[in-house]
Amino acid sequence: MARVLSGIQPSGQLTLGNYIGAMLNFVKLQHENDCYFMVVDLHAITVPQEPEALLEQTESVAALYLACGIDPKLATVFIQSHVRAHAELGWLLTTMTYMGELERMTQFKDKAMGKDSVGAGLFVYPSLMAADILLYQAGLVPVGDDQRQHLELTRDLAIRMNNRFGELFTVPDGYIPPVGKRVMSLDDASKKMSKSNPNPGSYIALLDSPDVLRKKLSRAVTDSGREVQYHPEEKPEVSNLISIYAACAGVSIEDVVRRFEGQGYGNFKKELADVVVTLLEPIQKKYRDIRESNDLRVILRDGAARASEVADKTLNQLKERMGFLMP
Ligand code: TYM
């Protein structure tokens, strides 16, 4: 049994990329591990957020966790800002992170590109993410491929802290799915599917209605060929759609290719839409039920209490070792 931790930002509509790259594995891992899944609101504010939108999205992501199958009896579900230790350890780790390390982060470079002014929080974001993970002594962190570099920095920081202040932190490993670690945009297979893309046609939102889902998938860009074949280099668009099919239907890439042998893209896309609708419709129904009930607030309060216990213990141990006068 491993300690598992991960988080998702409440910074827009969750996409099928979030689901396949992250949530699907959260649900799998919860059965045999000690899991902590949070909504990382402190991370979301590293880019400007409207207060009402932040509030709505935070509740929405928490409800989606449950709707997608995370069981609060098996896993601890909470909001990052409800556990004060995140901000505090984030600061302690910021003082131990080198500017050069943060300057190398590709996610920072992408998000800061072309902006006149960028908040310092966006720059030190990876130190806060390291705090999230190290507070819980997590051994396993299920994420998509785009988080690999942040995880590498987390490992470096854990080792650095252990060398400086004595063995305390578990050095975590990533848990990155072989299929679906990088779900690409429907309009451009060179970009990852992202909730921050200004073109809604580029992503499948988990809460898109069946009509919208079908329309988006029928308009997904393909090449001028006819064969449903998996060649990520030569046929990136179709390969992306095959991966989405495989992940959503719970079958292998080979199964999908075999099934559509000799058939054109039209039929494949139609069946893909059926698979995605069949997956998302019950999630959406459950989501609406959760939003209408009062259970979510209670679950999140319990989750924060459980998480705080673990997090405070680690934080206090570290502070003592660093030479802070303890109350
Ligand atoms: P975020 O909110 O951007 O995304 C949440 C999770 O979804 C995965 N993901 C994808 N996977 C495959 N294909 C895609 N197109 C795709 N888009 C998103 C991400 O890899 C991620 O796993 N920094 C994190 C949040 C975070 C965190 C943490 C994660 C904060 N603290 C501690 C793990 C542990 C982020 O921005 O994820």
Query: What class do helices, strands and sheet pairing give?
Result: mainly alpha
Strand order of the largest sheet: 1-2-3
List the bound ligands.
Answer: tryptophanyl-5'AMP
What is the radius of gyration?
20 Å
Helix content: 40-55%
How much beta, percentage-wise? Answer: 5-15%
Q: What's the order of the H and E elements?
A: EHEHHEHHHHEHEHHHHH
CATH class of the largest domain: Alpha Beta
Quantity of strands, as a count = 5
In total, how many domains does the architecture comprise? Answer: 2
Which descriptor suits the 3D outline? globular
End-to-end gap: 34 Å
Corresponding CATH superfamily of the largest domain: HUPs
Description:
This protein has 327 residues and is mainly alpha-helical. It folds into 2 domains: 3-176 and 294-322, HUPs (Rossmann fold, 3-Layer(aba) Sandwich), CATH 3.40.50; 200-288, Orthogonal Bundle (Tyrosyl-Transfer RNA Synthetase), CATH 1.10.240.10. It contains 13 helices and 5 strands. The chain has helices spanning 16-29, 41-44, 51-67, 85-94, 99-103, 106-112, 120-135, 148-165, 210-218, 236-249, 253-259, 265-292, 295-322; strands at residues 3-8, 34-39, 75-79, 140-142, 173-175. A 3-stranded parallel sheet has the order 1-2-3. It has a two-stranded parallel sheet with strand order 4-5. α4 (85-94) crosses α7 (120-135) and α10 packs across α11. It starts with a strand and ends in a 5-residue tail after the last helix. Bound molecules: tryptophanyl-5'AMP. Tryptophanyl-5'AMP binds at residues 5-9, 17-18, 20-22, 40, 43, 129, 132-133, 141, 143-144, 146-147, 150, 181-183, 192-194.
